[in-house]
Amino acid sequence: MTLTPDQTAEIDAARAAESRTLRPVSPGMEARLYTAHPVLDHGFVRVIDYMGDDSAIVQAARVSYGRGTKKVSDDAGLIAYLMRHWHSTPFEMCEVKFHVKLPIFVARQWIRHRTANVNEISARYSILDREFYIPAPENLAAQSASNRQGRGEALEGDEAQRVLDWLRDDATRAYDHYEAMLGQEGQQGLARELARMNLPANVYTQWYWKCDLHNLFHFLRLRADPHAQFEIRVYAEAMAEITADWVPLAYAAFEDYRMGGAQLSAKGVKVLKRRLRGEVVSQEDSGMSKGEWREFEGVWG
């Protein structure tokens, strides 16, 4: 992770300033505020602001005043019930705003989650930094033979080094040309909005990403999953750790029912009931496709 002296000073100043408030705050999130958590080689995630905590979810579900006289165990039970039965609205009462520095190709995958408010740095007005994502050697892999959008075995030796050299050289050359095209002393130069098209997809960009808790959980369920692409998964994992400190009761329910749970189709329910009655069920008489059956067996054996 790379922070400029100005950015470090800004973070230190923000963390040193304290404001009194009447609204409920999350101690876990207060400890996280403004701090930049490193991701990949030059990226980071940090919380800029947030609204609500576990009590806000409970309050919205009960439509009550204040925290009331309920015990923490009662709140945990209610939040688990809401998660279990897919009652999403109370979770929308909590919001968080992240500042994220990430490679452009990760941002283009991330932006598919259209349930957030996003403001990205504009290369029409700003000159992007000379920072590129270069994978660690252990994260270089061939195309998977069984998954069209996944990775297979890791590259090794000379082949891995050749790929790393190309990635670094190509990114450096493209940025050199980007810089040279911009207006310099004694040269009119190309407009920034045109020069930026020469930048590679592994150049870092930055954005503010604001999302409610319900949609953040949806993002984490997909992107913190072991099957997600590594480069976006590490961001999701960092955000998951922050979220666990922010709303511990809600995150525990999310881990239990979404990340650690399993969803069954109607056919899957029938097969499971038949198995519990002692029947031997095969894919051919299950009504499932081969892909569905493979996924079913992956969870239920």
UniProtKB/TrEMBL annotation:
EC number: 2.1.1.148
Binding site for dUMP: 109-112, 120-124, 196, 223
Residues of the active site: 223 (involved in ionization of n3 of dump, leading to its activation)
Alphabetized InterPro entries for the sequence: Thymidylate_synthase_ThyX, Thymidylate_synthase_ThyX_sf
Origin superkingdom: Bacteria
GO biological process terms held by the UniProt record: dTMP biosynthetic process; dTTP biosynthetic process; methylation
Keywords: FAD, Flavoprotein, Methyltransferase, NADP, Nucleotide biosynthesis, Transferase
Cofactor: binding comment: Binds 4 FAD per tetramer. Each FAD binding site is formed by three monomers.
Known pathway: Pyrimidine metabolism; dTTP biosynthesis
Residues that coordinate or bind FAD: 89, 112-114, 120, 212-214, 218
One MF annotation (Gene Ontology) recorded for this entry: thymidylate synthase activity
Its job: Catalyzes the reductive methylation of 2'-deoxyuridine-5'-monophosphate (dUMP) to 2'-deoxythymidine-5'-monophosphate (dTMP) while utilizing 5,10-methylenetetrahydrofolate (mTHF) as the methyl donor, and NADPH and FADH(2) as the reductant.
NCBIfam families documented for this protein: thyX
Family, per entry: Belongs to the thymidylate synthase ThyX family.
The protein's name: Flavin-dependent thymidylate synthase
Organism: Paracoccus suum
Upper lineage: Bacteria, Pseudomonadati, Pseudomonadota, Alphaproteobacteria, Rhodobacterales
Gene that encodes the chain: thyX
